[in-house]
Write a structure and sequence with these properties.
Layout lengths: L7 E4 L2 E4 L11 E5 L3 H12 L4 E5 L7 H5 L3 E2 L3 H6 L3 E4 L4 H9 L14 E4 L5 H13 L3 E4 L2 E2 L1 H7 L3 E5 L2 H6 L2 H6 L2 E6 L3 H29 L4 H8 L29 H17 L5 H14 L13 H7 L7 H9 L2
Parallel strand pairs: 3-4, 3-6, 4-5, 6-7, 7-8, 10-11
Antiparallel strand pairs: 1-2, 9-10
Helix pairs in contact: 1-6, 4-5, 9-11, 11-12
C-alpha cells in the first residue's frame, strides 16, 4: 500500500518508492469527495495545511469552486477520481450516499481505484454498510477504512476534531498523513466498523444527555428558577466540571463499585426528589422516571450500599457482557490526553 509518510515517484507510468532525483516528481495524490459543510473545510485543510495535491468531486461542481481556485483538480465521477489517487477520502450525508459513491458499478470508486490504494470514509455510517463495502473493496485489493469525525463544522474548519479509525492498523499507520492534517486527535479504534461504532455511541449518548438535561432543566425553570441562574449553577456543579465521559473510568470500566464514592441509595433519593419536583411543577419527566426505575431495580438487588453507578450493571446483564478493564490501562488512557 501507499504511505503518506514515504516519498512516491512516478517514473514512466510506474510507482517506485524512495527514489531521489531532481528529474523526478514526488507525488502524494489525494482525492476528496463530498464538499459540504464539513468536507469543504477538510479539503481546504488538506490543501493549505497539508500541502497535498487534491482531486475533488461533489454532486455540484460549484461546491468545489474555492478548492479549484486554490489549485485542486476536478474529477467528473468518483471512478475518475479514484483512478488517479493513492488515498481517497469521502465526507457524505449517510450510508446510501457512501454506498453509491463507493460501489456503483459504472461510476463508483471501486470501478476506478488501483489495487493497493486506500479509501477512508469520514462519514457517519452504519457499521454493517461499512463492513459490506470493505469486503467488496478487499476483493479488488483496495484498502477501505471507516474514519468518522467528531468536532462539528467549527472543528472541521479549525482542525480541532477527533477522527476514529476502524480497519487494518498497518494500512492506517502508513497512510494517516491526510487524517492528521484534518484532525488533532486521530486514533485507531479497532477492526473495520469500529470507528463507526465509536461515533454512533458518542453521538447518541450526547443527544440522550441533551434530552435528559432539556427535560429536567425545563422542570427546574417551571419550578421557579431563572434559566440563566440555573445554567450558571449546574455548570459549576460536580458534573458540570467533569468531562462527559471521564466518570466512566472511576467505577464502570474497572468493574469496581465497592466502596462507593456516592452510595446508590443516596443517588436514588436525589433522582426521586427531582422526579417529584417535576411532577409538582406539572412537567413530564420520562427520562428521569426511567432513571429512577433503573435505580429502584438495583436497590431491589440490595445494591444500595454500592456506588451510585452500580445500576449500570443491569444493562450489561441485559446485553450479556461484563466490562472489566485493567485499572492501570484505564489510567494510562486518561493520561494519554
Amino acid at each position: 500500500f501507499f504511505s503518506s509518510r514515504r516519498r512516491h515517484t512516478r517514473l514512466q507510468g510506474d510507482w517506485s518508492s524512495d527514489v531521489c532525483s531532481s528529474d523526478l516528481t514526488t507525488i502524494m495524490q489525494v482525492g476528496f469527495i463530498g464538499l459540504g459543510t464539513m468536507g469543504a473545510s477538510f479539503a481546504s485543510n488538506l490543501q493549505s495545511k497539508g500541502g497535498h495535491q487534491i482531486i475533488v468531486h461533489d454532486i455540484s461542481q460549484q461546491a468545489a469552486k474555492m478548492h479549484l481556485d486554490a489549485g485542486a483538480t476536478w474529477a467528473e465521477t468518483p471512478k475518475a477520481l479514484g483512478a488517479q489517487c493513492d488515498v481517497v477520502l469521502t465526507s457524505l450525508p449517510g450510508p446510501p450516499e457512501v454506498r453509491t459513491v463507493a460501489t456503483d458499478e459504472h461510476t463508483g470508486l471501486l470501478a476506478g481505484m488501483k489495487p493497493g490504494s486506500v479509501f477512508f470514509d469520514l462519514s457517519t455510517n452504519s457499521p454493517t454498510v461499512v463492513r459490506e463495502i470493505h469486503a467488496k473493496f478487499a476483493e479488488k485489493g483496495v484498502h477501505m477504512l471507516d474514519a468518522p469525525v467528531s468536532g462539528g463544522p467549527k472543528g472541521a474548519k479549525s482542525g480541532r476534531c477527533a477522527i476514529w479509525v476502524g480497519g487494518d492498523k498497518d494500512v492506517f499507520e502508513a497512510n494517516r498523513g491526510p487524517l492528521d492534517t484534518m484532525g488533532d486527535a486521530v486514533r485507531y479504534i479497532g477492526p473495520i466498523g469500529a470507528g463507526s461504532i465509536a461515533k454512533l455511541v458518542h453521538n447518541s449518548a450526547g443527544y440522550a444527555i441533551q434530552c435528559a438535561i432539556g427535560e429536567i432543566f425545563s422542570a427546574g425553570v417551571k419550578a421557579g428558577v431563572d434559566p440563566l441562574s440555573l445554567f450558571e449553577a449546574i455548570r459549576m456543579g460536580a458534573r458540570g466540571r467533569t468531562r462527559t465521559f471521564d466518570s466512566l473510568a472511576d467505577h464502570y470500566l474497572i468493574n469496581d463499585y465497592d466502596p462507593p464514592d456516592f452510595a446508590l441509595k443516596l443517588a436514588h433519593k436525589d433522582v426521586s426528589l427531582a422526579a417529584e419536583m417535576a411532577r409538582d411543577a406539572g412537567v413530564p419527566a420520562r427520562i428521569i422516571e426511567l432513571t429512577r426505575a433503573e435505580m429502584t431495580e438495583a436497590l431491589n438487588r440490595d445494591w444500595g450500599h454500592r456506588d451510585s453507578r452500580s445500576f449500570m450493571l443491569l444493562q450489561q446483564e441485559r446485553a450479556g457482557i461484563l466490562i472489566d478493564v485493567d485499572k492501570e490501562k484505564v489510567e494510562a488512557a486518561l493520561k494519554a490526553d
